[in-house]
Amino acid sequence: MEEQEQIQNRKIIHVDMDAFYASVEQMDNPELRGKPIAVGGGGSRGVVAAASYEARKFGVRSAISGYQAKKNCPDLIFVRPRFERYREISEKIRQIFFDYTDLVEPLSLDEAYLDVTVNKKGNPSATLIAQEIRKRILEEVGLTASAGISINKFIAKVASDFNKPNGQKTVNPDEVLAFLEELPIRKFYGVGKVTTEKMYQLGIFTGKDLKEKSVDFLVKHFGKSGAFYYAVVRGIHNSAVKPERIAKSVGAEHTFHENLTSEIFMMERLESIAATLERRLKKYDISGKTVTLKIKYSDFSLQTRSKTMPYFISDKSLILDVAKELLYQEKMKDSVRLLGISLGNLNTEVKKTVAVQLKFDF
């Protein structure tokens, strides 16, 4: 009981940069400011990686095709992504986080969880810490960020989306249950479009509706996720902020300008992909046992084929040998638009993190 009370007394901040990639491009190029831009490819094969808020008004968002994006917003400006620049900016932001706590769990280049239950500033208010962090990011980096603050990662993540862009929301301990009950089910983190539709069919539209369902009912309809939904709607999410996020796999992939129909051409591409993967593995001194070949067909259906070796590998030639074997494992069902290779079952060591919990004072 005492352990659960400590968990419920965490102070978690979720910081989410506003339209990060697009905002970096607008910051670096004043001519793009105030204009609808999309980071990514604008051709028939291109995909939007990020969109500025000016573009989002027209329904341009990440993961849609460049063709559709341009159709939605004829004045859209496409900008090629510069991931090295995004990583550079992300590192500056991360250093600001570390001024407040070492318990920082990056989710991607543009968002992270911070556990400030005990923090380096001795500030008892997570709300004020979030305000200060956002102010520093704006002054020192030149970008805006939004934040969510609450007792666990799930609620903090949901809250950070409420007052975007350049805002924050705190859900205090005594507000958690009411907040979750009123929350539309589509805003629950982890509930995607397909699951939302399924919940609607079951009469679940809000957190209150979800809370009325038994754990058996939810597990029956949603499998293991059902138990997760049952817990989070009651404010229970015990996952700690993990400063050492251990990668489960390392991969590389490539989308082709024209669909490939010949395995011979595919092998040429796989050789290049394997070389990229080897560089990434060498850079971080990582090796693994499970090689997975990813194939995306022209109809956008996805197929993966895997093989686990009895020993760790990281060498391009060995990875390519396995990828080749997987490629010829069965006949292609259609032309191929994307190939990828990933290495899992890695030799990375899991480091344990001990987080100290204190009494709340939001």
What form results from the Cα inertia axes? globular
Radius of gyration from CA coordinates: 23 Å
Mean pLDDT: 88
Discrete helix count: 14
Helix content: 25-40%
Q: Output the helix-strand order.
A: HEHEEHHEHEEHEHEHHHHHEHEEHE
**Biggest β-sheet, characterized?**
5 strands, mixed
**Low-confidence residue ranges:** 1-6, 349-362
Number of strands: 12
Give the strand order, joined by hyphens, for the main sheet: 5-6-1-7-8
User: What distance separates the N and C termini?
Assistant: 22 Å
Q: Give the strand content.
A: 15-25%
Structural class comes to: alpha+beta
Please characterize this protein's 3D structure.
There is one protein chain. By secondary structure, the chain is an alpha+beta fold. Helices cover 38% and strands 22% of the residues. It contains 14 helices and twelve strands. The protein has helices at 2-8, 20-28, 53-56, 66-72, 83-98, 126-140, 153-159, 176-182, 193-201, 207-211, 215-222, 224-232, 263-283, 316-327, and strands at 12-17, 37-40, 48-51, 77-79, 104-108, 111-115, 145-150, 168-170, 249-260, 288-297, 302-313, 336-346. The chain starts with a helix and ends in a 16-residue tail after the last strand. Residues 1-6 and 349-362 have low confidence and may be disordered.
